[in-house]
Amino acid sequence: MSRFFNLSVVSPVLVSAVVLVACSHKHAEKHGENDGHGHNHDHQDEIVMSPKDAARFGVKVEAVGRSPFSEIVKVSGEIMPAATERAVIIATTSGVVKLAKGIEIGKNVKAGELIATISAKNLTGGDSNQTSLVTMQAAKRELDRLEPLLKDGLITKKEYNEALRAYEEAKSSYSPTAATGRAVSGMTGVISVLAVNDGAYVETGQPIATITRNTRLTLKALLPSGDIDFLGKISTANFRPSHSDKIINLADRNGVLLSSSANGGGDTPGYLPVYFSFENYGDVVPGSPAEIYLVGSAKTEALTVPVEAVSEQQGTKFIYIKIDDHGYHKQNVTAGRSDGKRVEITTGLNDGDSVVTSGCTFIRLAETSTVVPEGHSHSH
């Protein structure tokens, strides 16, 4: 009996476009014939679709061959701001704030640019010595924050030395004449938070604004402790942010493996943290969870297909193989690891097979269709 595409399961537009036909063949060859690639096909299970219909429905195939493929471990993680990508501007003295011209949320500022002045004239609490003390203490807190990051490899020695120099300068300025009443940006970036309004009264040490830059971000991957042997093999990663369907390759973003630790994931017991740094092109949001594919050592020869080529039904994974101009065969396979773009096929696929990589849905609909137009027949 022939099998046809069930028009009731597709849109009216597709119904009006074309009728797909999937026929069960009766061949002169006996059932179970080998196709020359190691597959035994029962022609009663062959799915037929004309080249014209295949083209209309976007069915595409790829001839698979053995090629290098990296060992992959899929893990969860998160995207974080880089350690040096955020700076809080604080009031250097108590007084009335006067914002510099043009200061507003979203404004780009340079390192050292004036954000606001604070006047303590006719006000109490404007002790310049206290201001210098607060500045020195803030610089010391920043230095203490960066020290463990330097040990973990999350920042460079240059960045740490800049913070050390800032602390030493603040320390040397701790005197009754150190107060200036000026609040300046400590980095080049964008004003993301403006904590006070023009003319507001602030206390010494109160936040005035926050400067951020997201040109580089940190990717934190959590490798299960059971995969500790994979830790030393990691070279790079691919990831998919939770807010996107796009897989991002760190190699395309000047990604760098910062550090990995076998001492545990801190607040995530049972996991080993792995950190990467990469360039942000404005399409990645800090603070987002991510699906991460850690890339390890490469196999010299592996059979892989695009992830879109693999389907699953009742726990069994399968692909569609094109066996001739009109015929397709459903082939059960065993899938290995995926790098987010391609998946290794360990059994069920042979070198040289033509695998359907696009339009699998229409092949599947044709396979399961049982509606037979009157008067139709198909034979070879």
Q: Termini separation (Å)?
A: 14 Å
- Beta-sheet strand percentage? 35-45%
> In DSSP terms, counting alpha (H) and pi (I) runs of 4 or more, how many helices?
5
Structural class: alpha+beta
Can you summarize the main beta sheet?
7 strands, antiparallel
Low-confidence stretches: 1-32, 370-380
Rg over CA atoms:
31 Å
Provide tags for this entry.
four-stranded antiparallel beta sheet; alpha+beta; seven-stranded antiparallel beta sheet; 380 residues; disordered C terminus
Write the SSE topology:
Layout (H helix, E strand, L loop, with lengths): L2 E2 L7 H6 L3 E2 L10 E2 L5 E2 L5 E2 L2 H6 L3 E4 L3 E15 L4 E5 L4 E5 L8 E2 L4 E6 L8 H24 L5 H16 L9 E3 L4 E6 L6 E2 L4 E6 L3 E9 L11 E6 L6 E2 L6 E5 L10 E9 L9 E14 L1 E3 L4 E3 L2 E7 L4 E6 L1 E5 L3 E6 L6 E5 L1 H9 L12
Helix pairs in contact: 3-4
How would you characterize this protein structure?
This protein is an alpha+beta fold and 380 residues long. Helices cover 16% and strands 38% of the residues. The protein is built from five helices and 28 strands. The chain has helices spanning 12-17, 51-56, 128-151, 157-172, 360-368, and strands spanning 3-4, 21-22, 33-34, 40-41, 47-48, 60-63, 67-81, 86-90, 95-99, 108-109, 114-119, 182-184, 189-194, 201-202, 207-212, 216-224, 236-241, 248-249, 256-260, 271-279, 289-302, 304-306, 311-313, 316-322, 327-332, 334-338, 342-347, 354-358. The strands form eight sheets. It has a seven-stranded antiparallel sheet with strand order 18-17-21-7-16-20-19, with no helix packed on it. The radius of gyration is 31 Å and the shape is elongated.
